[in-house]
């Protein structure tokens, strides 16, 4: 699938639904970041922007990257509306072809799943290398499908945090795994329907 196809796919996803007025942050992000000193953050596949807006509100300078121009333009407008326009830089970026430049204290990749071509291990390895010493990479993946998910294939394999870490293949002298687990949470879907789902959480810290 080409970049053009991927852009069309994800622009279609976002254009098909109204802009979120007040997108919420990921609970794994808030529990990880609360108490950390603010710095420079990069949100990979920012989507509606709940994570970027929350981080900016906590004093972080956020680069929010997504392949969808619709998502990026909506987030930029939302950041301005929330008075956070100077803290959020929303950029259209295809992570399949390159990685955003710069060094970061926090990089997050939440549900960075796509039916289009994307070498996630390469993206996450680039992210680990883009961390400043002391910086953290938070990866939150689906560990199960909600009943309203488009993917109801019972044979779907959800890689464990340990498998994701093994795929990134980082030198233990420079990066350490701070968290690798599979917590449950109650997710809210269309029409306010709720269901218990599993997250796969991987938190890596660059130590040197
Ligand atoms: C399942 S959504 C998750 C969005 C958001 N992180 C969240 O937690 O709600 C995946 C996001 O990744 C973006 N994405 C998919 N492929 C991408 C690529 N090659 N480069 C950049 N972003 C991409 C999509 O546009 C979409 O916003």
From TrEMBL:
UniProt xrefs under Pfam families: Methyltransf_25
Bilayer-crossing regions: none
Range of residues in the leader sequence: none
InterPro entries: Methyltransf_25, Methyltransf_Superfamily, SAM-dependent_MTases_sf
Domain Methyltransferase, chain residue ranges per copy: 42-135
Xref: PANTHER family: METHYLTRANSFERASE (PTHR42912), N6-ADENOSINE-METHYLTRANSFERASE TMT1A (PTHR42912:SF93)
Protein name in UniProt: Methyltransferase type 12
């Amino acid at each position: 699938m080409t970049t053009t196809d991927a852009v069309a796919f994800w622009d279609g996803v976002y254009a098909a639904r109204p802009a979120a007025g007040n997108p919420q942050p990921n609970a794994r992000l808030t529990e990880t970041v609360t108490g950390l000193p603010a710095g420079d953050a990069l949100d990979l596949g920012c989507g509606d922007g709940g994570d970027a807006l929350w981080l900016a509100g906590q004093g972080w300078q956020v680069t929010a990257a997504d392949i969808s121009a619709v998502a990026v333009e909506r987030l930029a407008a939302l950041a301005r509306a929330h008075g956070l326009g100077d803290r959020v830089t929303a950029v259209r970026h295809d992570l399949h072809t390159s990685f955003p430049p710069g060094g970061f204290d926090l990089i997050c990749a939440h549900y960075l799943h796509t039916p289009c071509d994307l070498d996630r291990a390469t993206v996450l390895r680039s992210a680990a290398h883009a961390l400043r010493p002391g910086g953290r990479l938070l990866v939150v993946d689906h560990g199960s499908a909600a009943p309203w998910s488009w993917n109801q294939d019972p044979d779907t394999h959800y890689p464990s945090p340990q498998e994701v870490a093994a795929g990134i293949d980082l030198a233990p002298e420079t990066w350490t795994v701070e968290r690798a687990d599979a917590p449950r949470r109650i997710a809210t879907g269309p029409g306010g329907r709720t269901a218990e789902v599993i997250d796969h959480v991987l938190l890596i810290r660059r130590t040197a």
